[in-house]
Amino acid sequence: MSQVFNGLALGVLLALIATGLTIIYGTLGVINFAHGALFVVGAYAGFSLFVATESFVLSLIGAAVVSLIVGLVMERGLIQRFYNRPHEDQILVTFGISIVLVEIVRGIYGGVGQRVPLPSWGEGVVNMGFMTYPTYRLEIMAIAASVLFACWYVLYRTRLGLIIRSGIEDALMVRMLGINVQRYFMLVFGIGAAAAGFAGMIYGPMVSIVPDMGFRVLIQSFVVVVLGGVGSFPGAILGGLIAGQILSLTSLFNPVYSDVMLFAAMALILIFRPQGLMGVEGRA
């Protein structure tokens, strides 16, 4: 049961990261290989703010804001020029950006791992009757689930979300209605970047923060997107929860094979349901 709960905690984090990745791809058609670097930027920005303020809440907000700003600078400065370019060009430019961001972080903080202390309200364990479980991991589930719900609400219950989803289906028609679609698409990229940075700070107290930690998270997030379906917000959540359980339960028997099983699941999805569990056929 402890591993099941670990899988839930990891799953909601992966879902949060993959949500940003899938809405960026679904809206803009950009394969963003810099998403893992934004995760790292958020983790280190949150760490610096925590050292300065000793407030975990301010650090969470600051991590999201810093990643948002970095994401908007990326989008306006370079990535927007690649919207209509082949995916190979997008992969190369975003991969190059990720290397630059990671090396900037390494230059500022060095290669030594940093650790974000647990917030005071996250210390200790909770007796759940059938087991005891770390308080902070339970709080991670609640925080990440709240953020995912807020993103869902914005996308499916607001005028902004309506414009974004309409732009995905037919950007030309939305432009003909007098709406500046590019401005909204820029906002989508910023939201995706903020989600990655926020997840990076949440993840901080659970691991040692190092400049290269975003690479594995990026790969796992792409697997989540494939499992759930490209461009599908609910699919990213479902894919994250499935991926978290696969990684956690496989580690119970042999940690070496956890990634193997995750990629095996992705291969099966690609063979039997290429659009993903909740994806739309033809949108890829």
From TrEMBL:
<dbReference type="InterPro" id="IPR001851">
    <property type="entry name" value="ABC_transp_permease"/>
</dbReference>
<dbReference type="InterPro" id="IPR052157">
    <property type="entry name" value="BCAA_transport_permease"/>
</dbReference>
<protein>
    <submittedName>
        <fullName>Branched-chain amino acid ABC transporter permease</fullName>
    </submittedName>
</protein>
<feature type="transmembrane region" description="Helical">
    <location>
        <begin position="136"/>
        <end position="156"/>
    </location>
</feature>
<feature type="transmembrane region" description="Helical">
    <location>
        <begin position="33"/>
        <end position="51"/>
    </location>
</feature>
<dbReference type="Pfam" id="PF02653">
    <property type="entry name" value="BPD_transp_2"/>
</dbReference>
<comment type="similarity">
    <text>Belongs to the binding-protein-dependent transport system permease family. LivHM subfamily.</text>
</comment>
<keyword id="KW-0029">Amino-acid transport</keyword>
<feature type="transmembrane region" description="Helical">
    <location>
        <begin position="91"/>
        <end position="109"/>
    </location>
</feature>
<keyword id="KW-0812">Transmembrane</keyword>
<keyword id="KW-1133">Transmembrane helix</keyword>
<feature type="transmembrane region" description="Helical">
    <location>
        <begin position="218"/>
        <end position="244"/>
    </location>
</feature>
<keyword id="KW-0472">Membrane</keyword>
<keyword id="KW-0813">Transport</keyword>
<feature type="transmembrane region" description="Helical">
    <location>
        <begin position="256"/>
        <end position="273"/>
    </location>
</feature>
<feature type="transmembrane region" description="Helical">
    <location>
        <begin position="184"/>
        <end position="206"/>
    </location>
</feature>
<keyword id="KW-1003">Cell membrane</keyword>
<feature type="transmembrane region" description="Helical">
    <location>
        <begin position="6"/>
        <end position="26"/>
    </location>
</feature>
<feature type="transmembrane region" description="Helical">
    <location>
        <begin position="57"/>
        <end position="79"/>
    </location>
</feature>
